[in-house]
Design goal:
- The radius of gyration is 22 Å and the shape is globular.
- The chain is built from 11 helices and 18 strands.
- Strand 8, helix 5 and strand 9 form a beta-alpha-beta unit.
- It is about 30% helix and about 25% strand.
- The mean pLDDT is about 95.
- The structure holds nicotinamide-adenine-dinucleotide.
- The site of nicotinamide-adenine-dinucleotide has 31 residues, from helix 3 and strand 11.
Length: about 375
């Protein structure tokens, strides 16, 4: 039966790993970090407009696979992401991700994208947005503990958004540190390789921990704390996986993304249920104080929240369309008669005559 209305377009923009890498290379990493940071900041100011839930995690012996859904009135998004610290021994990334942006009005998936690289970008952007508010204004030196896949992104975000000029870096794997030093050699940062976490942390204004180890680790211990330090704890992001000793949290004002999720997953998992924390959106919107003195110790207990991926997916969607990168695919069937799914498996098929896949550059040309 022929339709008598023009069908709503439900095609999906597909961005695979090479597409996303091209987008970041064409735009430049600093532009992407700044763009995602601006969107995260703006979306955190719309906090009450989002339908929020802690992510859904499936745990196994060596890792976790998580689904991270969120929506506002117009857009629904989710990210699929894993965390498997032993993966690098198999030649596979610790963290891999992809995600979807869907139209709330119809439920149609409008973007399907690789999100491993965007996860590093949005995590760094989120950390830097938090530190811009919570760290001392004249912070110039950052210790970076854990020099794996995420580390360069943190370095560049803190250089551009916070004003960090010197990095004191340490990893239990010297090859990871050598890789970081190599990758950052022309980025306008002084990078000092250290022999231990304690050495790296000494004298730093900001300490970022971004290690991967599925255990209750205490990478930062209380005697390492110096007055006024800001801790950006990124790697403690899953039950049974921490980086900060509980007394570091006791000594600090602790800020989180979304409290119900961080209580389960963050370094906060070690603390009693009534341990006081402040959600960052309240500081960004002026409803709560952030840092109140130069001597105060602050912690951003980062675990990664779905709004950050929503922001990153929108940045990717807009930038891919602007640059003409990606393919338009029929991920779900667009039929001549939407009530006749059965006809799509008939001899003639009943899919709209759209090609299965075409470059967005051709379509928008
Ligand atoms: N909070 C977030 O939003 C968010 C987002 C992405 C990743 N993460 C987490 O960040 C961490 C790093 O991710 P990645 O992709 O860079 O992983 P990766 O495996 O590439 O790198 C992790 C590095 O940590 C090092 N390391 C492990 N234990 C250490 C220790 N005790 N001291 C110093 N270094 C140590 C490892 O040698 C490795 O080089 C992971 O735990 C991941 O789950 C968090």
């Amino acid at each position: 039966m022929a339709r008598n209305t023009t069908p709503t377009d439900i095609s999906t923009l597909y961005l695979g790993a090479p597409d996303v890498a091209r987008i970041v290379a064409r735009k430049g990493l600093p532009v992407c970090i700044a763009g995602v940071a601006d969107r995260i900041h703006a979306d955190f100011l719309r906090w009450s407009e989002f339908d929020k839930t802690p992510r859904v995690a499936n745990h196994s012996l060596d890792g976790v696979i998580e689904l991270m859904p969120i929506s506002d009135a117009d857009w629904y998004s989710f990210k699929y992401v894993n965390g498997h610290p032993k993966n690098t021994q198999l030649g596979v990334s610790t963290v891999m991700a992809f995600g979807v942006l869907a139209d709330v009005a119809t439920g149609a998936p409008r973007l399907l994208a690789e999100l491993t690289l965007p996860t590093a970008i949005r995590t760094a952007a989120m950390s830097a947005v938090a530190a811009r508010t919570l760290a001392r204004k004249n912070s110039r030196v950052m210790a970076l503990i854990g020099n794996g896949a995420q580390s360069e992104f943190q370095a560049i975000a803190f250089r551009d958004i916070v004003g960090i000029r010197t990095l004191r870096v340490y990893d239990v794997d010297p090859r990871a540190t050598a890789k970081l030093v190599r990758n950052l050699h022309d980025q306008g940062l002084e990078v000092i390789a250290c022999e231990s976490t304690a050495e790296a942390v000494r004298g730093a204004d900001i300490v970022t921990t971004i290690t991967a180890d599925k255990q209750l680790a205490t990478i930062i211990t209380p005697e390492m704390i110096e007055p006024g330090m800001h801790f950006n704890g990124v790697g403690g992001d899953c039950p049974g996986k921490t980086e900060l000793h509980a007394d570091v949290l006791h000594a600090a004002s602790v800020f989180v993304e979304y409290e119900p999720q961080t209580r389960i997953e963050g370094d906060l998992q070690q603390m009693p249920a009534d341990f006081e924390v402040i959600e960052l959106w309240r500081v960004l919107s002026g409803q709560a104080a952030g840092r109140t003195s130069d001597a105060q110790v602050t912690v951003f207990d980062s675990v990664g929240f779905a709004i950050e991926d929503y922001s990153a997916l929108h940045f990717l969607n807009d930038t891919a369309r602007e640059l003409g990168i990606g393919d338009v695919i029929q991920l779900v069937p667009q039929m001549n008669d939407p009530k006749d799914l059965f006809a799509t498996i008939g001899p003639a098929g009943d899919l709209q005559r759209a090609p299965a896949r075409s470059s967005i550059a051709t379509i928008s040309a």
